[in-house]
Amino acid sequence: MIVLGVDPGSHATGFGVIATGESVRLVAGGVIRPQEASALPERLLAIYEALSDVLALHGPGEMAVESLFNARNARSSLILGHARGVALLAGARRGISVAEYTPGEIKKALTGNGNASKEQVRFMVRRCLGLRGDPPLDQSDALAVALCHAARSRLQARLAAAGGEDR
Questions:
Q1: Is 19 a member of any domain?
Q2: DSSP string, 54-94
Q3: Is 141 designated active site?
Q4: What is the mean pLDDT of residues 66-79?
Q5: Which of 22, 138, 141, 166 is catalytic?
Q6: What are 128-164's pLDDT values in tens digits?
Q7: Where are any strands of DSSP class E within 8-158?
Q8: Higher local confidence (pLDDT), 38 or 18
Q9: Is residue 166 situated within a structural domain?
C-alpha cells in the first residue's frame, strides 16, 4: 500500500509518501512553500496543485492528514483550516480514502508520548524509515502522519483477520 501523509500549513505544507508491505520505505517527501507575498487564495491554489501533482505522480491508495488542534489564535486556526481543506479536496478529487489524525495521536503512535516534541517525532521517523539525515520538520511531520496511518491500518487488518471488529 502507498500512503500519502500531509502536514498542512498555509506557508509550508509537508508531504510524505511511504510504501508498506514486508517493510516500510520512503517513496517521496518534501515541503510545499507557496510564495510568501502571495495572497491566501493563491497560496491555497499552489498547495492544491502541488498535492494534486504528488497524488498523480505516486498514486497512493490512501491519504492521511493532520487534523486541527486547539490553537490560541482563531485567525491562525481558520487559515490552517483552509490549508487542510485544500489537502482534503485534493484527496477527494483523486477518489482515495482520506483519514485524519490529531497531533497527539500521531505523536503517541510514533513515540509513545502524545506530547513529544517535533524533534522526537523526527528522530522516530528517521528510525522507522532508515533515513540517513534529518528531513525538514514539516516533511518529517507529514511522514509521521503517513506512518501513523499505516500502523493503524495494519492493526485494523489484523483485527479483522482475527475475527475482531473495527472499534
A1: yes
A2: HHHHH--SEEEEEPP---S-HHHHHHHHHHHHHHHHHHHHH
A3: no
A4: 80
A5: 138
A6: 999 999 999 999 999 999 999 999 887 677 777 888 5
A7: 13-19, 25-32, 62-66, 97-101
A8: 18
A9: no
Does residue 163 come out as left (phi exceeding 0), alpha (psi in the -120 to 50 range) or beta?
left
- For this structure, is 49 an active site residue? no
Distance CA 33, CA 139 (A): 12
Assigned domain for 36 exists? yes
CATH code, domain with 80: 3.30.420.10
Percent share of the chain, pLDDT over 90: 79
Q: What total of structural domains would you count in the chain?
A: 1
Domain enclosing residue 147, as ranges? 2-161
- Considering 36, 53, 66, 165, which one is annotated as catalytic? 66
Instruction: Choose, from 7, 119, 134, 165, the residue flagged as catalytic.
Output: 7
Residues 147, 153, 163: CA angle, nearest 5 degrees: 150
Specify the pLDDT at position 53: 98
* Inside any domain, residue 48: yes
Count of residues for the chain?
A: 167
Closest CA to 47 of 105, 3, 6: 6
| 42 labelled catalytic | no
